[in-house]
Amino acid sequence: MAQNTDATMRLEGRVAIVTGAARGQGRAIVERFVAAGASVVAGDVLQEVDGLEAEYPGSVCSARLDVTDSSAWHDALQVALSRFGHVEILVNNAGMLRRMEIEEETRDAFERLHQVNCVGPFIGMQAVLPHMRAVGRGVILNTLSTAAMTAFSGHAAYASSKWALRGLTRVAALEFAGMHIRVNSVVPGPILTPMVVREDDPTAADRLARTPLGRAGLPTDIAELALFLVSDDAGFVTGAEFVVDGGQTAGIYTTAPPVR
Fold first, then answer.
1. Per-residue buried b or exposed e for 191-205, using 16+ beta carbons within 10 Å of the residue's own CB
2. CA-atom Rg of the chain in angstroms
3. Catalytic status, residue 158
4. pTM for this one?
5. Which of 7, 101, 208, 251 is deepest in the core (most CB within 10 A)?
6. Which CATH superfamily does the domain covering 15-244 fall into?
7. Catalytic: which of 33, 158, 176, 242?
């Protein structure tokens, strides 16, 4: 469980919807927001998300949320409005990862990844927009990937979907600024989550730790940045991208030659 160490309660009175909340980064974000005083609708297609409501009664409501389904977004919004009265934070964290070379990729799988990773956030932003406008403020945080800053071989569907979301985020930042709605993106690198550390990839954790900082990232590393970006501390920040990758994309990392 997250410890409430934030004496300022930076999100007190705020209501957030967080997608992909059942585990990994999404769960860490929910827990950090609750510790900072927020009420949260935790959305996911996984039944595990119900555990968050049981763990944080009164602060978290769970919702079955398939981000590609407009009716599911409507239902999640109704949960937020009926339980908490308003919504001013959206974290589009839900995503899918698929490893497949272009030659072997299928159209159906390619389109499915884009539906989850890019179309889902698009539907979500459209859904919350009138409610944020009514409140008079809002913050949207989209989860990209370092695959949106460069390219990973064998990840055509994933990388292209994150590049698309990167462009969508910037457009949204420009279009929503006049409504006092900020839109930013967090760009995780090698983070230890169930999506990337899987039973069929037993060397993943060791491989991800090969960063200039000498370790892989943790979901809490993303959650701390998310808290800052949705809080008033980042009130002059919109259209920005924040890379959390232990220095992985800073440049070519070489070890120093031995002293002779």
1. bbbeebbeeeeeebe
2. 18
3. yes
4. 0.91
5. 208
6. NAD(P)-binding Rossmann-like Domain (3.40.50.720)
7. 158
